[in-house]
Amino acid sequence: MHYPWWYVPNLTSPMLIALIATVHVFVSLYAVGGGIVLAGEVSYAYKVNNKSLLDYLKSHTLFFILLTVVFGAITGVGIWWTIGLASPLATESLIHIFVFGWAMEYVFFVLEIVSAFIFHYYWGRLDAGTHKTIGWIYAVAAYISLVLITGITAFQLDIGNWTPDKGMWVAFFNPQTFPQIIARSGASLLLASLYIYLHAAFKLKNDHQLRALVENRTSKWAMAGAALVTIGGAWWYFNIPPSAKAALAGASALNILSILVFAASAVVFFMLFFGPYRNPGWINPGFAILYFLLGIAATGTGEFIREGVRKPYIVYNYVTGNNVLVSEIPKLQSTGYLNGGTWTKAFMKAHYPQVFDTTGNIDDAKLLQLPEGDQVKVGQVLFQYHCNNCHSVGGFSGVAELTRGWSKDMIHTVVTHLAKAHFFMPPWCGTQAEAQMLTEYLASLSEPSPPGMRFGKAVNPALKQLADGTLREEGGK
To answer: What is the pLDDT of residue 477?
Structure first.
């Protein structure tokens, strides 16, 4: 309420977060799982003194650094940039609640970067013991980063028994922390293995013996990852709060996607077991790409479901989807949504000073006296701040289509009963007068019913005859 709104036409700003965050998740999970797999495989290669395997792992480490450290850092900055603009209140809340957690994460992130570069660029210049140690330092630092960030993002779905007077660790160890750590640990191992398959299928295209060894050993990591994804995902489902379960049950698309996540994980597991694990040498570029796409689909779908069931909150029971503190809603419903925001109130003072009373607050009676055109403009401001976090005008989840054919009375009823009309929407946070302003704006956008949708009127002569009882089948029956 005290931040200017960032408007992204047709897409909405949270969807831009989703696009950048999804790409970042694919890379960041590889950074964690890849670090563990590389440290483990380098240790094995040193143990059996397999120089050709070490040479391959060195080449993969360069690919790993370029993708995770360079590209991953860029997308990581992109996430902070977009969430700061699209969800400033939620971002501010998470920073304040977990300030010590973020400080720890930054320390381990720096340790990741330094150890990753030493691991690669000092390859062959360090003795085997030191080199393995550096590899495991990276793996442990990356995994601790995953644990810290997962605990913070898990808090968004279920704050547990945390209240603002309690410390960070109460917030961190919420009911969702351990299920999501297990699921993401599995996803990181699975994705890392699939990245290795993809790289090895092209890099070792002509070295069948080495490729078979890489496949066989990597398949063990991948199958462990697929199993952890399934265990963590099931635990996650049984621990989500009632609102999330209701959102999941009420959205058929999310139910289908949930089935697809488990199905894709099971398919990958059995393909890995009967393929690379039991029959090394089975991987070729085509199968590697197929494996990779299945892993990406399962991971991306799981992340989408995790975000989708959080509605109507950004932080469960603390910050609503439209960046309002749950504790502020009663006051806003009483004194006015426009009055409650720094930028909304500034807009009204600049454009409609006549609606303010002697105390400097907006008077609802004066608001309703505005001409219809001005009411539409005020409604647009309300839509921008109250609704645009989930809805665009005419693009993704566009209100012009969602309200197609609705009367003003229908729109007004839904606006004033948002949470009852759709339980995954936050409640209306303004006064009745402001609801009227938003109704006028939405009515100005609403598309008409499609041609031919004239229920109660004869569209087809045969239908009219059927309704009148005069339509007869052939033969006069």
So the answer is: 45
